[in-house]
Amino acid sequence: MEGEMVKREGIAFEAIPAAGLHGISLRNLPGNILRLFRGTFHSARILKRFQPDLILFTGGYVAVPMAFAGIKIPSLLYVPDIEPGLALQAIARFADAIAVTTVESIAFFPRAHQIKVTGYPTRSDLNRWDRTKGRNFFGIKPSAQVLLVFGGSKGAHSINQALASILPFLPATLEVIHISGSADHAELQSTKATFPVELQHRYHLLPYLHEMGAALSAADLVVSRAGASVLGEYPLFGLPSILVPYPYAWRYQKTNADYLVSHGAAMIIENSVLSTELLSAVSTLLSEPQRLSSMRQAASALAHPQAAREIADFAVTIASAGKGNG
Questions:
Q1: Along the 326 residues of the chain, how does pLDDT read in single tens digits?
Q2: In the chain, where the domains are located
Q3: DSSP 8-state class, residue 81
Q4: Among candidates 209, 234, 214, 207, which has minimal Cα distance to 222?
Q5: Which of 16, 22, 160, 244 has the largest count of CB atoms under 10 Å?
Q6: At a CB cut-off of 8 Å and minimum separation 6, what does 200 contact?
Q7: Is 10 helix (H, G, I), strand (E, B) or coil?
Q8: For 2-119+306-325, which CATH superfamily applies?
Q9: What is the third-level CATH fold of 124-300?
């Protein structure tokens, strides 16, 4: 999916064979190790052809072969989530410098000789959206309360199901923007058709949205997973959140959510109780404007709008130092 997004922006893209080594069966281990070796050779060919001054890593096991192949090339590791996964911890051993989203991440890299807190980089196109433009995009009145619900680029089945079950019981004036992902969209369309016409008009159901800035700027409250982007995009828009960490992976989403909660910008609902607690949580927060305002201010206080620029400047510094030593 990321490859298609990169290509759509007109940026050259090349995939690297790779596979994770954590949490897999012994039956799959030899094949994954083989893919790791293939990925390393493939990465070496890319580096020989491209001759980079710097390698920028952002994590994931697909980056490990490139880290092996590019061990002699200056490198910068950016850590999006607060707690790094095993792949990021492995890559950190090869990186010349590390950029992190929050100061809390520094504790996970005690041996790093160059580390900088930059914040989470957000896309520049998000800056053109404000509350008025976002609501005009969806045809929503300025005075309405707006709930945004999504589960990431591929959607989240448990969140989709929970929202569908409570929609008829939410306040009658509430507008809901629901980005469902493609897998559940057809079923949700059928469910929407059973709602009263008035509710159908207030329920904005989309499988995917390229203009996420419109939804983020229009919303008063968001319900979502807790991937790394919540550390940058929600603070950028001062957006209070109800976070539902993905339960079937490493605990990085829980750590991200705990960070926003500890700063007063979010609350957590565990995935296991989402279906029974979502209605109460949404209704309570939307009925307490002072609490929402406090959460909005807390989220805004965590914003790093220049994070992308800081990472870029850091990258140039590392690359320049590497060339000076070469």
A1: 677 878 888 888 888 877 655 544 445 556 667 778 888 999 999 999 999 999 999 877 788 899 999 999 999 999 999 999 888 888 898 899 999 999 999 999 988 779 999 999 999 999 999 999 999 999 999 999 999 999 866 669 999 999 999 999 999 999 999 999 999 999 999 999 999 999 999 999 999 998 999 999 999 999 999 999 999 999 999 999 999 999 887 789 999 999 999 999 999 999 999 999 999 999 999 999 999 999 999 999 999 999 999 999 999 999 998 755 54
A2: 2-119+306-325, 124-300
A3: S
A4: 234
A5: 244
A6: 192, 193
A7: coil
A8: Glycogen Phosphorylase B; (3.40.50.2000)
A9: Rossmann fold (3.40.50)
Q: State the Cα angle at 84 between 82 and 87, rounded to 5°.
A: 160
Question: In 3D, which of 57, 118, 124 has the Cα closest to residue 92?
Answer: 57
Tokens (6 digits) for 321: 């130092």
Contact 99, 116 (CB under 8 A): yes
